[in-house]
Each structure stands twice: as structure tokens, then as C-alpha cells.
Write a structure and sequence with these properties.
The protein has 252 residues and is an alpha+beta fold. Helices cover 46% and strands 13% of the residues. It contains ten helices and seven strands. The protein is elongated.
């Protein structure tokens, strides 16, 4: 914001070009999967400041002496620049620009941090998901010939509910087949799935009873969490209760 005011006062005509590029990747990680463009464009298309936000800035000790026309400009602030970007889900390599923003200097500087946060986080998640997917391709079943699949269950470890939405979408881009985050399914149409938690197993007199009740409730979608007490015994109980209906087990 301090630079935006400076540009407005001293270089209002200057157009700048900012690029978000990959530098060196860690050892054994030779690619990333670009993600976050959808949210970036939405942010840029809807960017504005309401009167309360402008009033807050007017009162800041470092800004209150600035001329009135700067704050008037903020009241009509919107992004008018251009964006060039790699499509989401694209594999990219070192020294590759993921995103290029060409705009008046004040605008380009204003959006820098927000865009970095969106692109960096979602690209990290999508890239990790792609690495998981690649590892699983090496474990194809000798019976079905199919590789294992994986699901995003990361919402409880995300940096807040909004980040959980971004991460679930990015994981799907990277190779997850579904998410446990129902809001993402509702908003974006990504497949949703889930299992019972340890609390469910502990709510009954025995693990076997808990499995029976869950199987009765979801006979066609039975995935049982087997590590509440004794993992191997939990597997035996799961097989005994659900038999051929058992879609899988969950190890937490």
C-alpha cells in the first residue's frame, strides 16, 4: 500500500510487468503442477475497496497525510491489467513463469501478495498430489491390474476453512479422485466421499458392533476405520462384518 501511494503520486503513468516464476526445485522434485489460476482471476475481476476500508487507510499514521486524491482513487480502484498464465493442471519446470501480470504499477504492486498466496499454496498441494499419484502407479494390483487411488482428507490440517477449499481443489487437479470436503463438492462438482471417525467406533460397546452399525447404514459404501484399538484385529472385524461389501479400510 505504501508503494501504491508512491506510484500514484510519482509514477502514475508507469506500466509494470510482474512474473511469478519457478527458481530451483528441491532435489528429486523435478516438476510442479500449476494451480490457483481460477481463484486468482476471480480475485482480480472482483477487486474493489469499500468506503470503510478506505476510511481505515486514511487514519493510518503512515498514510493520513497523503493527498485526498489518492484516497479518491482507492474508492474507484479496480484491476485493469492483463494476465497471462499457464493453464491449471499443467506440469511446469524450473525457470518457467507460471503467471505474468501486466498493469499500472499501482495495481500490479497491490495484488502481488494475494496472488503469491493463491498460486504458491495451491501449486504446492497440486504438486504433492501428483507425486502421490505417480508413486501409486507403481503398485498396480496383480488381480485387477489397477493402481490404488487416493482421496483428499486434508481439511482438518489446512490453514483455515478457506484454505481447505483451495487445497481440496488443488489436490483433485493433482490426481486425487475425490475429497472429504462436502463444500467443495457442492461448489465445484468434485466427487465427495468419507468414512466414519474413531469417535464412531468408540460410541459403541465394541468395535465389531460399530462396524456392523456403519455397514447397516451404508451397505454399498462401507469403508471402515480399523486402527482405533488394534489395527490387525480391526481388519479382521471389517472383513467379518462387511465381507464382499467392504470397499476398503482406512488407516488414520
Amino acid at each position: 500500500i505504501t508503494m501504491a501511494a508512491g506510484y500514484h503520486l510519482h509514477r502514475p503513468e508507469m506500466v509494470t510487468c510482474f512474473e511469478l516464476s519457478l527458481r530451483r526445485l528441491p532435489a528429486h522434485r523435478h516438476f510442479l503442477v500449476a494451480a490457483g489460476l481460477h481463484d486468482t482471476l476471480h480475485y482480480l475481476e472482483t477487486l474493489h475497496l469499500d468506503s470503510q476500508a478506505v476510511d481505515f487507510l486514511k487514519k493510518h499514521p503512515a498514510l493520513h497525510h497523503l493527498p485526498t486524491h489518492f484516497f479518491e482513487a482507492l474508492e474507484h480502484f479496480k484491476f485493469t491489467g492483463d494476465v497471462d498464465a499457464i493453464p491449471e493442471g499443467t506440469v511446469c519446470f524450473e525457470h518457467t513463469p507460471l503467471l505474468r501480470v501486466t498493469a499500472p504499477a499501482m495495481q500490479a504492486q497491490w495484488v502481488e501478495t494475494f496472488l503469491l498466496a493463491l498460486i504458491n499454496y495451491q501449486t504446492n498441494v497440486a504438486s504433492k498430489a501428483a507425486r502421490i499419484h505417480n508413486v501409486l502407479q507403481g503398485y498396480r494390483s496383480g488381480v485387477t491390474g489397477k493402481a490404488p487411488t487416493f482421496i483428499d482428507f486434508g481439511s482438518r490440517r489446512a490453514q483455515g476453512p478457506e484454505a481447505a477449499l483451495h487445497a481440496a481443489r488443488a489436490a483433485y487437479l493433482g490426481g486425487a479422485i475425490a475429497t472429504s470436503n462436502v463444500a467443495v463438492g457442492y461448489q465445484l462438482g468434485i466427487p465427495v466421499t468419507g468414512t466414519a471417525a474413531h469417535a464412531w467406533t468408540m460410541a459403541f460397546e465394541s468395535e465389531k458392533e460399530a462396524f456392523e452399525k456403519y455397514h447397516h447404514t451404508y451397505p454399498e459404501h462401507t469403508v471402515l476405520l480399523v486402527d482405533t484399538y488394534d489395527t490387525l484385529q480391526g481388519v479382521r472385524h471389517a472383513i467379518e462384518v462387511a465381507g464382499h461389501d467392504l470397499k476398503g479400510i482406512r488407516l488414520d
